[in-house]
Every structure is written in C-alpha cells, then in structure tokens.
Amino acid sequence: MESSEFLVSVQSRYFEDYVAGTIHEFGTITVEEDEIVAFGRRFDPQVFHTDPEAAKSTIYTGLIASGWHTAALMMRLFVDNYLSHVASLGSPGVDELRWILPVRPGDKLSLRVTITQTNRSRSKPDRGIVHSFIEVLNQDRIVAMSMKAVNFLLCRPSFP
What we know:
Elements: E1 23-30, H1 33-43, H2 47-50, H3 52-55, H4 67-81, E2 93-99, E3 108-120, E4 127-137, E5 143-154
C-alpha cells in the first residue's frame, strides 16, 4: 500500500482518524555526533556510543547511537507528526522493539508508520485503541529500527 496522509492535522486528530491499513511517512531528524556522545555518556556508556576515536576499533568501526537514543529520536518524530495532540491518552507499552542497523552521526531519520488495527473500547466508548507498526528509516530508506506500539486515543466528541 502507498503512503497516505491524514485528513486532519495532528492538532485535531482523534481515534476515528487512524484508519487500519494506512501507511504514513514523516521526518526527518538529523543524528548529531555530540548528541550521540552526550546520550551515551549519560545513559549507555559503551565505548561505541561515547568515544569516536575508540569506536573505530570496535565491530562497528565508528561511533553509533545507542538504540535507546534512536528510540528517543523516533519518539520525537512520532509525537510531532503522528500521535494526536488533543486525544492521546498514553500507551500500555511496545512490543518487538528491534535495532536492525546502526545509526551513525549525520544519518537523517524518518518514520514509516503502518496502522495495523483499531478497536473502539467496549467498556469505555469515548476512546479507542490504535495498534501501529513503526519503522525508523535512514536517509537510504533502510530500516534501522522497528517496533509495534499500542496507543489509547479519545474518540471525536459528538455534539447534540
């Protein structure tokens, strides 16, 4: 299926606007070397995340972003472009998080999000559940990270 666009902006998007089977693409965000090092030093202090020179002698032959840093960059694009700014109620979690390809300084990341399933809540009819498959693509459109997400969203208010 081809990538499609939402009919409403992220500022006014509700559960009903997330249609199962549609694919949406967003981006980009550039990965900066100083941010890789800062994140690595603070949260994932492995040499291939913290020391550009020493990283050259690792299996990665250079500095790479922590997978958790990549996930944080994904989340920025996800919130800015996909997740409703008026109806999001959070998430119970993600499944099948995979770091497939190292992310390097200068990479330009974008998202491809496939809505795999939507269900209106039976017990709370003012909301629904959206299941999404998220792929983080690099500038060559190669998948660097993927995961499945579940989000709770309010339904569009109905006025009498």
